[in-house]
Design goal:
The complex is a heterodimer. Chain A is mainly α. Chain A is built from 7 helices and no strands. The termini of chain A are far apart. Chain B is α+β, with helices and mostly antiparallel strands. In chain B, 41% of the residues lie in helices and 23% in strands. In chain B, the strands form 3 sheets. In chain B, strands 3-4-7-8-14-13-12-11 form an 8-stranded antiparallel beta sheet. Chain B has a 4-stranded antiparallel beta sheet with strand order 2-5-6-9. In chain B, strand 11 and strand 12 form a beta hairpin. The longest helix of chain B has 26 residues. The chains are: A mainly alpha, B alpha+beta. The interface between A and B is large, with 52 and 57 residues.
């Protein structure tokens, strides 16, 4: 426990610009997007994205390198998203399967391929929730369009090892998914 | 030599430098094994992409505009800050986990977080802590009072300054800890594991009393009947917290958050993850200096009333305490008990908290030769006595 006095978190730079606002505007859509990819629900994704920025707000900015803020945000949101996904699956797997079966039977509004897509998404999320955290994070970031450099910065790994981890993660994903189906 | 999978993957993703990209290409053309690996990886990547893009590129994704989201965040910030205020005042200092880290840290934490403690403690005008006394309070009483106390934060930021003397530092041996902290560090023998030793540098906190601010606070929390001596105004009370050494045995979890469940107070001690470790914290007694001539009993009386005592009780209690040498620890009435017990050749104070599943955790505090010791962990009075008896 640090003997630190609670100081007001200073969010304004010396020239008066509010870096927090700038960061928020810059990253909100993408942070929300990642949360949505993981949990697939608007309200929950919004909640997770807000939580991510709230954590940033609480953090003393001195402890964060401004250039690495983006990376920090994406690391936090992927973690939060995966945690949510895991607890969601623990909580709801039975209910959801039941619900889904019901949907397939009674849903005349949705065309069949839409129902199938929803099932695929559900399966992908279930498999992600079962992967090692880092593998799941890598896959989500990569297929959200992150470059190796951005992934390395986000997950704090060496840029040269992103390929190795990613190859492994894809293999893990493929094996699990095929088992799952 | 074949190209490792990671590099092939980077090649596929066009993430190598142009010259590397070319080098790998040349190699693959002449290496059947690498060519096969590449095809396999390409197929795998295609498979992963087709599935993962289902979730990452979902078109029917609803979004919230940046402005609307920013506004929601602002609401959350306001809400949480209010909450934190409550937590600081009502629960952190009443939670055993706090006391667990030792009285030194309590003092520090008092200054660092719950402003009410900072004020109350500095009012005590302790000169040097030589013993502890426990006062049992009803925290539910406090809660209503501090619910809307904006003055605390204000007073704290306006009137209190904290000067820290460095960052906590992990050390490898008790001799190293002794040298750093400037005290002869003692450790219990016969523990099951080696301790994690950490030296926490000291700090000085000064509180310059602004009677107007204090009175505004007292009004706000509806304790108008408390009167403070006029000569308190402008007085500076400073608390000197010496470096402390903590030794942890086992798995400590102070920093863990309780699992968040809707509808539950995350600070409810019954829900806190309990620490499985035993901890001994030691430091020179903290000192507090206050200007001479202050009526310390009167201030102590105010402190006790803030903590929820009736004026009569506070009066009685305050008269029977030597406020210059006694550190008064408020503990919640429910589920917490305390007693005096012999330890290390002196009389110590033992605080026990019982959890709903009947497990107990203890904190044993004592002062010997000018050093404050705080021993804590899972167990009972006898656990504490046994560990304390092996100190070397």
């Amino acid at each position: 426990m640090a003997l630190t006095a609670k100081k007001h978190v200073q969010h304004k730079a010396s020239d008066g610009t509010d870096w927090f606002d700038i960061t928020f505007a810059q990253h909100w859509n993408r942070v929300y997007g990642i949360a949505f990819s993981l949990v697939g629900d608007h309200a929950e994704a919004e909640d997770l994205a807000l939580e991510t920025f709230w954590r940033l707000y609480k953090k003393a900015p001195a402890k964060l390198n401004r250039e690495r803020l983006g990376g920090w945000l994406y690391r936090v949101v992927t973690n939060l998203g995966l945690n949510a996904l895991r607890s969601q699956h623990r909580r709801e797997s039975y209910e959801q399967e039941a619900l889904f079966a019901e949907q397939v039977e009674h849903d005349t509004q949705n065309p069949a391929d839409q129902v199938e897509r929803n099932q695929t998404r559900q399966n992908v999320r279930t498999v992600l929730a079962q992967l090692k955290s880092r593998s799941a994070q890598l896959l989500v970031l990569r297929y959200s369009g992150f470059s190796y450099r951005d992934i390395a910065a986000t997950l704090e790994i060496a840029p040269g090892s992103v390929g190795t981890f990613l190859a492994r993660a894809e293999q893990e994903f493929e094996e699990r998914y095929q088992n799952f189906e | 030599m074949h190209i490792p999978d990671g590099k092939l993957k980077a090649y596929l993703d066009l993430e190598l430098s142009p010259s590397e990209q070319e080098r790998v290409q040349d190699h693959i053309e002449s290496c059947q094994h690498c060519h096969a690996s590449l095809s396999k990886q390409a197929a795998r990547a295609k498979y992963a992409q087709s599935l993962l893009s289902e979730i990452t590129m979902q078109e029917d994704k609803k979004t919230t505009s940046i402005a609307a989201a920013r506004q929601q965040l602002e609401m959350r910030i306001t809400e949480q800050e209010d909450n934190n205020m409550l937590k600081n005042v009502f629960s952190r200092e009443y939670r055993l986990a706090w006391i667990v880290v030792g009285i030194i840290v309590i003092l520090a934490a008092a200054i660092a977080f719950p402003p009410v403690q900072a004020i109350a403690n500095s009012f005590l005008g302790l000169f040097r802590v030589q013993k502890f006394t426990v006062v049992s309070v009803d925290p539910s009483n406090l809660q209503g009072r501090f619910e809307s106390a904006n003055q605390l934060e204000f007073m704290f930021t306006e009137d209190v300054t904290v000067d820290e003397k460095g960052e906590p530092q992990e050390v490898d041996s008790s001799s190293e800890a002794s040298a750093l902290a400037g005290i002869p560090v003692r450790l219990p023998a016969g523990m099951n594991s080696e301790p994690n030793l950490e030296v926490m540098p000291g700090a000085t906190a000064s509180f310059t009393v602004n009677l107007e601010h204090v009175q505004a606070l007292l009004n706000e929390i509806e304790l108008t009947e408390i009167s403070l001596p006029a000569d308190l105004d402008g007085a500076t009370v400073s608390i000197e917290i010496p470096s402390s050494v903590s030794a942890e045995y086992g798995e400590c979890e102070y920093n863990q958050q309780a699992p968040t469940k809707r509808g539950h107070d995350p600070d409810d001690p019954q829900l806190m993850p309990r620490s499985r470790c035993s901890t001994l914290v030691q430091a020179k007694s903290p000192t507090i200096s206050a200007p001479p001539g202050l009526d310390i009993a009167q201030i102590g009386n105010a402190f006790l009333q803030i903590m929820g005592m009736s004026p009569e009780e506070a009066d009685h209690f305050a008269q029977n305490i030597d406020w210059t040498t006694t550190f008064v620890i408020p503990i919640p009435q429910n589920s917490t008990t305390y007693q005096e017990m012999p330890v290390d050749g002196v009389v110590g104070t033992l605080i026990l908290q019982e959890f709903k599943d009947q497990e107990t955790q203890y904190v044993l505090l004592w002062v010997k030769d000018g050093i404050v010791y705080a021993l804590s962990g899972p167990g009972s009075a006898s656990t504490a006595a046994r560990i304390a008896s092996t100190l070397k």
